[in-house]
Give the backbone structure.
Amino acid sequence: MDAAKGYETHLAAGGKMLVTLGGAMSTAELGISLAEMIRRDKVHAIVCTGANLEEDVFNLVAHDYYERVPHYRQLTAKDEQALLKRHMNRVTDTCIPEMEAMRRIEAVVLKEWMAADQAGERYFPHEFMYQILRSGALRKSYQIDPKHSWLLAASAKNLPIIVPGWEDSTLGNMYAAAVIRREVKNVHTVRTGIEYMTGLADYYTKNAKTLRHGEGSIGFFQIGGGIAGDFPICVVPMMHQDLQRRGVPLWGYFCQISDSTTSYGSYSGAVPNEKITWGKLAATTPKFVIESDATIVAPLIFAWVLGQ
């Protein structure tokens, strides 16, 4: 529980916490614990994949149609083909129904994309999600307790969200199709990843300071690997090395939950000390690596921080 105590200590010292979501944590229903962390002001910004952004909403409106496949490791290619034929998209042991989840959301968000395009307006992917949630267009379709949706909790707080590589998501593919069909004429109606990075730099500049113990005031809590973690952690060396800014604090806390081991070919398996050489962390930064299943560990840490 050292990582949880470190999280708690960082907040108690007046720090903020940025949480990153890799993997398929939304489909694993991390919202059950993460939403309460957001409501209790234990999370101040989120960086997530496009999949985690949309899959929280998929789960919100189509949960009753999901199918569990506990024996997923024994599925044959023919078994997988049968799931495809039924339009059941498998994520580990959970199948997401295309029509009830993906196409239902597409129908709602496409209207928002087209309206923004026609008005000459541009928004980030998470802002479009906030719009459809706040509009109430999906409320009658909720199939879980809304308190278990982390995106609803984030929307209520107007929490900053960064979604690098959104184009790789299901909705990103649908957006590309809408552009090809000319339903959306300006491809930049959905704002880009570079704009997310410049926005993150602005957020960091406004919110980061040096705490009394010498650490930076924004902590970094990474769940899983990949772009969700790799993208935001680079904002600090970018400001130091590329913008030549002085006095920008390094990240004040770092924890990564991952079952990846360090190697050239691993999935974001670099240990924290390696990040020192890239100007992301200091030698004195509290650092933790938990090599385990994030679907088990993250809720346990959140429960500790929440005092549950």
About this structure: The chain has one domain: 2-306. The chain has a mean pLDDT of 94.
